[in-house]
Amino acid sequence: MSSFDSRRKKLNKLIEQAGADALLVTNFTNVTYLTGFTGDDSYLLASADAHVLVSDGRYTTQLEEECPGLKLEIREPGKKMLPVVARIVERAKIKRLGLEGASATLSLKESLTEILPNVELLTTDGLVERLRLVKDKGEIEATRVACQQARRAYEVVRATITPDMTELDVAAELEYRARRFGAKALSFPPIVAVGQRAALPHARPTQRRIGDDDFMLVDWGANSGQYMSDLTRVLVTGRISPKLRKIYGVVLKAQLAAIDAVGLGKTCEQVDRVARNIISRAGMGDAFGHGLGHGIGLEIHEAPRLAVGQKTRLQPGMIVTVEPGVYLPGWGGVRIEDDVLVTRTGCEVLSDVPKQLDDCVLES
Questions:
Q1: DSSP structural state of residue 190
Q2: Which CATH number fits domain 137-360: 3.30.450.40, 3.90.230.10, 2.40.50.140, 1.10.287.40?
Q3: How far apart are CA 117 and CA 115, in angstroms?
Q4: Distance (Å, rounded) from C-alpha 287 to C-alpha 197?
Q5: Fold of the 3-132 domain
Q6: 0.85 exceeded by the pTM?
Q7: Among 29, 145, 184, 243, which lies 20 to 30 A Cα-Cα from 88?
């Protein structure tokens, strides 16, 4: 049984528990997760009797290559998606059809109500996302590859940085090098922020020169094909000021303690609290304004979330970022981020870029 067969089999149980006969999967990322198909504009009708992927003629060859053995329904040119879906639903004698609440629009539901008057439509909440919480061996390995691609790209770019380069130059070089090391792309547009601009957690690269301040923050990741990595490091490009040394030390202490706290049965809130307490005791709690981390996988931000109020318990196979930060407008910011796999005995850090402050100093 392939991993996709196994996922669809698990989904069938969740569909039954939701009180539906079938689920119409309209989130393209969820379709990929369940089938291996990497195109878009395609829906999956999932039921205990059959799984049917509804697509169009542009993807016929790709579907045969990526989804061997999966039942396909190829729309003819000019045929709209929903009438084809309705025909399959009627043919399968489905009485209760589940819809993905997070991706099915009100317009889609109204259209299905009109063309399937005898079918009860049920709104479901995160059935496929619940499966995606825990990664299988293939997903974990793909994430390892993404972490290594990100590390290698960073190492090359770090070695070639000059004071005259801009934030945009560094961002472009990261993209280029990641692709040279086999990545499909970066996981997201990278954050490269020099000095005061590092106080913006989601700063966009600008023409600001690297040599304009003594440090910069770099947040980047690689997409190994489908699975993502997400890392952040601070690079010291000038002198280490006492303030930078102090803040960096607090953030690193918080990150290492939080990683040590990651383990089977811990709640996401508990892990967040470990880092948050350390930063608060250092008098910087107000400067840590975001959650400690998030899941990564087919998307760069997935469940679970390491944050206040999040009661989800960590399970082996979950992969989360651990990324505490301190941001001071007018001065800058420090964030340190790694990708962490929950194991049966604790956790494993998948990213291995050095992060002691002395390791972050560029050689002149």
A1: P
A2: 3.90.230.10
A3: 6
A4: 15
A5: Creatine Amidinohydrolase; Chain A, domain 1 (3.40.350)
A6: yes
A7: 29
